[in-house]
Amino acid sequence: MTVSRLLLCTDLDRTLLPNGDQAESVGARDAFARFTARPEVRLVYVTGRDPDLVDEAIATWDIPEPDLLIADVGTTIAARESGRWQRWTRWDAILAADWSHHSRDDLQAVVEAAGGLKLQPPSRQSRFKLSYDTFAGAAGTAVAGTVRRLLDSAGVRANVVWSEDETVQQGLLDILPAAASKRTALEFVMTTGGYGSREVLFAGDSGNDLDVLTSPIPAVLVGNATAGVREEARQRATAAKEASSLYCARGGVLGMNGHYAAGILEGVLHFYPEWTATLEEIT
Q1: CATH assignment at residue 141
Q2: Are residues 235 and 205 part of one domain?
Q3: pLDDT tens across 97-142, in order?
Q4: Does some domain include residue 158?
Q5: What residue numbers bound the domain in which 239 lies?
Q6: Reduced 3-state DSSP string for 147-172
Q7: Would the N or C end of the chain have less CB density within 10 A of its end CB?
């Protein structure tokens, strides 16, 4: 079936933005911009950044303005109106139901009893997100497990998301309302816009993308993702019987290396081969 529209959703850091260790294919971001400018493509950034840091990335890296923003690891959905990001209050209302009886001080006291955590700067916090630095590797996953148990014992409905910034060997821990994640926010956008899964593509690179990468939503893991993330994504997708919805970019397509924007475009071709001629023309 040929699709007439596409909701193209991508993480930013080390997915679209080439701020990792691997080289970016020359011209890949320009080709991505030309493709997302097509009228049948709607662009969504799905990121851990807050809206201000998204604007900083747009200016710094000269990437396209998105049609919609899923920020703060799924706790913010916003659209640009009169030059400013305006939150979707319908999504806020869903998330508020999980944390309505808990103050931020209460949540911090529960979480920080785990130890091994350093609260990130105020710019990394939001109404529905507590963010910490923690250990990398197995020590960080152990801290995340302890935090989950503490929150459960305290009766807090929360989603604990652990990921790792491999460039600096830093563990990252986000505490969100139970209803919040990149996947649930994206599914809310899909339902609101009437998009079926055959009309969507998600691109990611790291641990906090795994909930979407291993879901029924068509998804591409860019080629610069670490071997550990790639293996975990494959295992979890297989266990969920969603292996056909996950594609791992390999490079060698459109004369590109499969990293960052090149990997996103490779994913487009994998799931939507009807756009081969279009992408060959713009790359």
Answers
A1: 3.90.1070.10
A2: yes
A3: 888 778 888 899 999 999 999 999 988 898 899 999 999 999 999 9
A4: yes
A5: 6-90+180-282
A6: HHHHHHHCCCCEEEEEEEECCCCEEE
A7: N
